[in-house]
Write a structure and sequence with these properties.
CATH superfamily of the largest domain: Vaccinia Virus protein VP39
CATH topology of the largest domain: Rossmann fold
Structural class: alpha/beta
Strand order of the largest sheet: 9-8-7-10-11-13-12
Helix content: 25-40%
Strand content: 35-45%
Number of strands: 13
Number of helices: 7
Distance between the termini: 53 Å
Amino acid sequence: MRIPLDVVGDIAILKFSRYVPYIYKKYYGWKLLRQSKSIKVVLEKTSGFSGVLRIQETKWISGEKRKDTVHRENDCFFYLDVDETYFSPRLSQDRKIMCEEVLRVIKPKSRILVMFSGVSPLPIVLAKTLKRAKISAEIISSELNKKACEYGEKNVRTNKVENYVKVFCGDSRKLCESLNKKKQRFDFIFMLRPNLEETFLDSALKVSHKGTVIYYHGFGEEEKVKKEILGDVKLVKRKISRLFIRKAGEIGAKKYRFSVRFSVLN
């Protein structure tokens, strides 16, 4: 039997089918701890990430009784709680790709907005990428979940990128409205959206200028994602470049997360 598995720091999160006996879950957890010295906690995933705060529920199976950990990725360290904050190790490659693309075109002193940033993994990976290249930038990391903001601020300090990243705790839409009133604009905007009907594109476009590069996470089917982007752009009477779309992970049977890149033309 193949059990879906995610490893976050030293925590293994398993997703068992509905009819797996509890005794088998305990045995599988014990076996996993024996096989891997790096795993200290085994949890069962009992619900997926949901709601605007993107929190999940897990049940302890074996190992140490905790749900907080430190995850290492792309030469960065992230403190987090797997239940109370959103973090996906499956997006590690997506983060790396976006950072590499930005590095090729970014200019010094660029302004970057990361919406729905969770515990700030993308802002931090991006900041360390730019820091190594000795390119200055201002990065605003926006997140609604207060617990995720606390971890985000700790992660910014841990990775020593305070000169690059500032964490804003609050609604990304309200932040964009406030920044728009101050006529502030960004050169890059990352929309790491939760899987909700609302696209938030109108908010992002308010703080974009001609040439702003936007990265957008869409869910479901590719054509659906294209239509929601083009439809919202048309509603606010803006123009964008052609869409560059790639898959950034499977979220269900034949349904995917898509990472979409485009530029604002007016």
